[in-house]
Amino acid sequence: MVSVMWFRRDLRLEDNAALKQAIDESEELLLLFHVNPDQFLGEDSSNQAAFFKSVDTFRKEIENSGGVLQILYGDLEECFKRLKERVEDWTDVYVNRDEKGYGLQRDKVAGLVFKELGVKTHAYYDHHIHPAHEIKTNTGSYYKVFTPYFNKWKELQKPNVIEVNFNAAKIRNDLLFKEDAKQFESFLTNQLPLHELELGTKAATARLDHFVESFLNEYKEARDYPMKDATSHLSKHLRLGEVSVRTVYNKVKSAEPSIGRDTFIQELAWRDFYNMIYATHPEQKDQSIKEAFRQIEWDNNEENFDKWTKGLTGYPIVDAAMRQLNETGWMHNRLRMITASFLTKDLLIDWRWGERYFQEKLIDYDPASNIGGWQWAASTGTDGVPYFRIFNPTTQSEKFDKSGEFIRKFVPELKQLHGKKIHDPSKLTVEEQDAHGVIIGQDYPAPIVSHKKSRELAIAAFEKSKKIT
Ligand code: FAD
């Protein structure tokens, strides 16, 4: 009898719940990845490029261990029917289940196909420390606010690392669908190259070790300053499943006690929290969670949106952040908060536009965390920033990029500027502009909106929506 281990966003051979069971329970095992064109985001998408680069890295890791990752390319139902025709004695499939969004819908469709084919599905929780349904209030409902959720989260026993004995598996290693593999390879050649991006379990583990050794202790103080670059950068590896969150948690937990360690663990709990919120509010991809803010009259000015995406708003910290995203596929957390606040409050543009732009660009794109982060910044989520407490991009810049080093790195037009005015170059006198080689409105844009005015308009729009509802 043949079993299939169907990898999706769990691209690793270590600490993998479904893979362990598949190895322990199967006579012969087929390792498989299904490329579904329904999910493609376009060739400009760094999210997509990173995802498939990771699949390719994983394929090579498996080959180095003497196995083969079978690629199926095309419509899901057609692909699995083809597999059954080819491998008649295929009886079981092992997966790490998705609890929400696209993955959940896909698993529902796949479940029906497997049933029709007479294949038994074995599904495991693997992506989070605590799955969505596990943490409830004493009255059996789901939490809406992070702090009480986290208090409960802390009390619960944490899962250990799962030992996987990959060498014990009898892996089928003849490539079954050569045409599909070829199609995948030609698809890969059309993706953004992302040369600098190191992916795979080895890179993820090295990153984790380096972070724990060099940054964990100071994480609480340093994590808010983009130029210090003192966060773990594990989000892309977690999103792709190149490292298990259990491995991350247990490694960090076993480090010397510190406020940094506790703060980092709290961030892993935020990841669980947003997973729970998305699983329990499936409508939140397309709708604000807070009913009171579903009637906001967004301005949705396309020209302003375009300037925001390109980093041409005239607010240097916002522009530097957007350019970091466009150039690297990643953005520092503090900057995600600043740019999301700027889009939704200063430009009064619908948070869903921003969420979709981040989806296209982020190499660590995770729907639950992204939607959660956007709804937090837009004040429309369950536990968002209050709508009247609006980030001032200039003071945020002065506080978190005091010397302007981060701005100079990503906004070369301003690289000659030192001192306070780098945070608001519209304040430069004509003489100063000449002296620093930057003419405002020509070399670098004047602010596209006035923060003071926009703040008033945003508060009025939120209050109006509240009244209508
Ligand atoms: P670290 O500071 O090292 O944190 C460690 C890990 O904790 C992260 O890798 C991540 O898995 C988790 N984490 C940290 N902060 C958060 C948070 N606020 N919410 C959920 N999990 C968190 N994170 C994503 O992984 N994918 C996204 O698509 C995403 N979109 C976001 C959009 C907005 C508007 C905002 C405000 C935040 C978003 N975040 C997202 C959360 C956060 O910005 C990133 O997880 C973090 O910047 C990743 O860098 P890091 O791995 O160095 O983080």
From TrEMBL:
InterPro entries tied to this protein: Crypto/Photolyase_FAD-like_sf (IPR036134), Crypto/Photolyase_N_sf (IPR036155), Cryptochr/Photolyase_FAD-bd (IPR005101), Cryptochrome/DNA_photolyase_1 (IPR002081), DNA_photolyase_1_CS_C (IPR018394), DNA_photolyase_N (IPR006050), Rossmann-like_a/b/a_fold (IPR014729)
A GO MF label: deoxyribodipyrimidine photo-lyase activity
Keywords, ordered alphabetically: Chromophore, FAD, Flavoprotein, Lyase
One Pfam family in the UniProt entry: DNA_photolyase
Residues engaged in binding FAD: 219, 231-235, 264, 267-274, 364-366
EC number: 4.1.99.3
Necessary cofactors: FAD; (6R)-5,10-methylene-5,6,7,8-tetrahydrofolate
Family in the record: Belongs to the DNA photolyase family.
Protein known as: Deoxyribodipyrimidine photo-lyase
